[in-house]
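2024-03-11 09:14:02 INFO worker-7 job=invfold-0412 stage=load source=structure_tokens
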């Protein structure tokens, strides 16, 4: 194998693994005529199916987690809004009471 074969991306040697089968090189590569390993279609399809299943499961889990978080935040918003409204009502009552007491005090004062 020459150094030009090692630098060319079309002629990179990959050692065969137990899940590969050897095929003859394509005629357009102009390579040295060595056999190239190629994964079988069945194994590749199985890998793709497993990858898609994992991705589908992860996407479903993410979407559910996102919806749960949104619901949690909406509940917190409702609680805070309720607290704010209660505090505003309490403040209005106290201001009215203060105004009534201030109005009552000058009339009871001796002059």
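2024-03-11 09:14:09 INFO worker-7 stage=emit residues=111
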């Amino acid at each position: 194998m020459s150094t030009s074969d090692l630098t060319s991306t079309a002629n990179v040697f990959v050692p065969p693994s137990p899940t590969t089968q050897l095929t003859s090189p394509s005629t357009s590569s102009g390579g040295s005529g060595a056999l190239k390993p190629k994964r079988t279609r069945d194994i590749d399809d199985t890998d793709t199916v497993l990858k898609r299943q994992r991705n589908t499961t992860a996407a479903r889990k993410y979407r559910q987690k996102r919806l749960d978080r949104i619901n949690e935040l909406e509940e917190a918003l409702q609680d805070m809004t309720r607290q704010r409204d209660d505090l505003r009502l309490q403040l209005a009552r106290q201001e009215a009471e203060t105004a009534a007491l201030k109005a009552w005090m000058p009339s009871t004062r001796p002059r």
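2024-03-11 09:14:09 INFO worker-7 stage=report msg="The chain has a mean pLDDT of 78."
2024-03-11 09:14:10 INFO worker-7 job finished
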